[in-house]
Write a structure and sequence with these properties.
The protein has no helices and 11 strands. By secondary structure, the protein is mostly beta strands. The chain is 0% helix and 53% strand. It is globular, with a radius of gyration of 13 Å. It has strands at residues 3-7, 10-13, 18-25, 34-39, 46-51, 57-59, 67-72, 77-82, 91-97, 100-101, 105-110.
Length: 111
């Protein structure tokens, strides 16, 4: 059974940085793609970034150049480094693997 636990969210000011973590158990993060999505209040879940099993990455247009996805196979963890945060980045961030999702971590960016 795949379990995912997101962490690292918080309340920051515009321009600050955060690093989110997605700790997986039950399946290797290098076995297939791991995706970050986010969902703002009253809005649909939006794609943020994905890292494929070969390490290739892809980003949503709104975060390109500011966010970086990476993984640590030794700890079975995927990270999302978020720089130059903007108020519009405020959302709950979820990671997904093998059609399973964590409970998310809240990111709030004040202006």
């Amino acid at each position: 059974q795949v379990q995912l636990v997101e962490s690292g969210g918080g309340l920051v000011q515009a321009g600050d940085s955060l690093r989110l973590s997605c700790k997986a158990s039950g399946r290797s993060v290098s076995s297939e793609g791991v995706t970050w999505y986010r969902q703002a209040p009253g809005k649909e879940r939006v794609f943020v970034a994905v890292i494929g099993h070969l390490g290739t990455t892809l980003y949503g247009d709104s975060v390109k150049g500011r966010f970086t996805i990476s993984r640590d196979n030794a700890t079975n963890t995927v990270y999302l480094q978020m720089n130059n945060l903007k108020p519009e980045d405020t959302a709950i961030y979820y990671c997904g693997l093998h059609m399973c999702w964590g409970r998310g971590t809240q990111v709030t960016v004040s202006s």
